[in-house]
Design goal:
The protein has 286 residues and is mostly helical. It is built from ten helices and two strands, in the order ααββαααααααα. 67% of the residues lie in helices and 3% in strands. A two-stranded antiparallel sheet has the order 1-2.
Amino acid sequence: MARQKRRGRKHLPPRKKSAPLLADEDFAARMGLSPFQWTVQQLALVLACASVCLHAFITLCYGVAPVFVGAPVSLMGLPALVWLVADGVWAWALVCTLRRRWGPPRDLPVDPRSAWRYGGGFCLAAVAVGLAVAGAWQPLWPGLVGHAAWPLWPVQVALPVCLPLAREPWAGWAIAVAFGALVVSVVALKWLGQARVFLVLMAVSLAAFAAWVWGEACVRFAGARGLAGVALPAIQAEALAAPADFNAWVWALWWTGVLLWLAAASAAAGVFHLPRVALEAVRQRA
């Protein structure tokens, strides 16, 4: 008689155990970051998310997307709308990254889908620039607020303080200090190996660039409207010819100055908070 097979539960392969969930400290350590570097990276992600959201807001307000791709370019019409979608994709990707870092414990330091999100935004941005180069449907879209200046209220508030930065000799000194500190910082890191001196000089360079950019934004805002005794016929003619484009670039200059000031503050704080191991790593990478 043939031997009957036993009926019963089949043996299943053992389940693969998931990696242990990581707390914030372990999550930062897995990525090779010190606590201060982790905090700065979090701040950079928040600022990046705020930047793309504000850029989308200004594009909706004026119908112009101010972008810098080797040179200042004003996208209008269909290219501006495509770049607006790219801003939305980048904002979604940054929010997902922040939720992963601030949410409950997780098992992987990097989201495997984040590259697709950010890559999709860059692909849309490339399509927008390509449409602009091809001249595809670029009528002047007035935006939601037309030529109104209320989205630029931070520039108007900072006008009394920042307008003198655009006058001589302050503007010339700001550019000279920015480039001079940048060159000396590279020398201090490459040839002298002084990481702390490098951070101090980078902070000075970024702050000088920020002062010049804010001064430029304020002088353009005041010159176009005849405020604070500033009368510049060339700027007034530019603002009258394309007011939406002009206002969008004034906002872009102001927000660039904000980011430069925050970058300078982060570099200055790194002088006191970066541990010796991190400074040694900066020196070796140089």
